[in-house]
Amino acid sequence: MTSHSLHPDTWVDLYSDYLYNYAVTRVSDTEIAKDIVQETFLAGLKSAKNFKGDAAERTWLIAILKRKVIDHYRKINSNKGKAEVRMSYSTHMDSEGDWLEEQVADPYSILENDAIENEELGLAIQECISKLPKKQAHVFNMKTIQGVSTEDICNELGINPSNLWVMIHRSRTALMECLNQNWFKL
Amino acid sequence: MISCEKAAIICNKAQYKEATVFEKLTLKIHILLCNACAAHAKNNAALTSLCNKANLKALTDKDKTKMKEKLEEQV
Fold first, then answer.
1. What is the pLDDT of residue A83?
2. pTM
3. Per CB distance under 8 Å, which residues of B are interface residues toward A?
4. Nearest to B47 among A16, A30, A175 (CB)
5. DSSP assignment of chain A
6. Which among A144, A162, B20, B35 would be 20 to 30 A from A68, CA to CA?
7. Chain A residue with minimal CA distance to B10?
8. pLDDT of A13-58, one tens digit each?
9. Domain A116-184 belongs to what topology?
10. Domain boundaries of chain A, sorted by first residue
11. Which residue of A has its CA nearest to B66?
12. Taking all residues of chain B, what is their mean pLDDT, rounded to a whole number?
């Protein structure tokens, strides 16, 4: 097995988006997710000497991130005093029905699977993006995910629109190829 | 007829709704006659719908610089 090493100076560029997507699906709040990613990096730095090199950097960071997500839920529960499960059968006090039967998951619903699949898809795309050359990944991110206008990107990066479209073309072609291998042929 | 390179650029613009009506028309004609571009356009549209479906999130550059600064403080 090859041994891995840590390079904290590259973490933000390489993994922040991946970790962020992972965190967002778990806490469903962009601000909290951002904080958790930050805490993960800091905690990773602090315990870098405990890194044995068996896992890839990203896997190791994800493991820390998972702990941070758990910590987050513990904290919000202790803020309330204790973990409470509040359930009321219905907002209408006088409604009748079979409580259990109505709480059972709908076996015909595909919505739950969709959510799981979409999360995995998001991470697969994120992984493919991270394999792109840095500049292409940057342009693709801004254009596709952040939805920045062509004009603004050109101004910010000092390129002209035809450069931009060539870079978008290359990144999209590479992503199609990558997703074909990693997503459709699982 | 437009070249395949040009068709690809228009196809990409169309994914971000930035192609003009005239451009889209020339693309449509090209796709009718060119199998390779037709396949590419199909994949390209699929990529767009995948990206939409995944509901991707990304940190802004500002957030990333802030994170880098905080990390550097700790080093």
1. 54
2. 0.75
3. 8-9, 12-13, 15-16, 18, 43-44, 46-47, 50-51, 53-60, 63-64, 67-68, 70-71, 74-75
4. A175
5. -------HHHHHHHHHHHHHHHHHHHH--HHHHHHHHHHHHHHHHHTGGG--SSS-HHHHHHHHHHHHHHHHHHHHHHHTSS------S-SSTT----HHHHHS--TT--HHHHHHHHHHHHHHHHHHHHTS-HHHHHHHIIIIIS---HHHHHHHHT--HHHHHHHHHHHHHHHHHHHIIIIIT-
6. A144
7. A165
8. 888 889 998 898 888 788 899 999 999 999 988 888 888 878 888 8
9. Arc Repressor Mutant, subunit A (1.10.10)
10. 8-79, 116-184
11. A38
12. 89
Sequence ranges of the domains in chain B: 4-74
Q: What is the predicted ipTM?
A: 0.85
- Same fold? A8-79, A116-184: no
Domain A8-79 fold is Rna Polymerase Sigma Factor; Chain: A (1.10.1740)
Q: Which of B12, B16, B70 sits opposite A42 (nearest CB)?
A: B70
